[in-house]
Design goal:
4 helices; binds S-adenosylmethionine
Length: 168
């Protein structure tokens, strides 16, 4: 497992405080050590768990799919309901830019290796941090985000082009 014990406390806080979450998706399985923890959390809460990696682990954890998720982001099953998405693959800033906008409203996004592989400047404008003081206080390298209010902008009504109709 590539996590510290205090990272598990962040997950527990996030899952306890976000009952709208109906599934957990892990980007970057590695050998699956943390996947077993996330799967146990998902089972206890009656929600789904999926994990993706380009390399097959020696022992396949529950919910595993072999996938290059940078090449085929559309094949990551993000569900039509809020999820907790864990960005822990090879390029976390890229994951933060690519996947949250594809997730259902109400989703939460967790990213690992804060301060090394993921920097403040890697956080896209459309994300807002949650539980930052808690993460700092326990020395966790996990950070949590949600979509900013008003994002994505309301879709225009069908047929609305943004300009007044041409005079007939
Ligand atoms: C930091 S490890 C994941 C650690 C795991 N979450 C844990 O806590 O034990 C990052 C993983 O991202 C995977 N990865 C890198 N590029 C990838 C890609 N294009 N598609 C899928 N997985 C990728 C690597 O194979 C590696 O196993």
């Amino acid at each position: 497992m590539a996590q510290y014990l205090c990272d598990l406390m962040v997950w527990e806080l996030v899952l306890n405080n976000n009952p709208q979450v109906t599934g957990i998706v892990e980007l970057g399985t590695y050998q699956g050590g943390f996947s077993w923890f996330l799967d146990a959390q998902a089972r206890a809460r009656g929600i789904s768990f999926d994990t993706y990696d380009i390399i097959e682990p020696d022992v396949e954890p529950p919910g595993f799919t072999k996938l290059d998720f940078y090449r085929f982001p559309d094949r990551v099953e993000l569900r039509d309901a809020p999820i907790a998405l864990f960005c822990d693959g090879g390029n976390k800033p890229r994951e933060l830019k690519t996947f949250p906008t594809r997730c259902f409203p109400g989703s939460v996004f967790l990213v690992h290796d804060w301060g090394t592989e993921t920097l403040e400047t890697d956080v896209p404008d459309f994300l807002e941090e949650l539980y930052g003081d808690f993460c700092d206080s326990i020395g966790s390298v996990t950070r949590v985000f949600k979509m900013k209010e008003g994002y994505p902008p309301e879709p225009a009504p069908p047929g609305f082009s943004g300009s007044p109709p041409e005079p007939s």
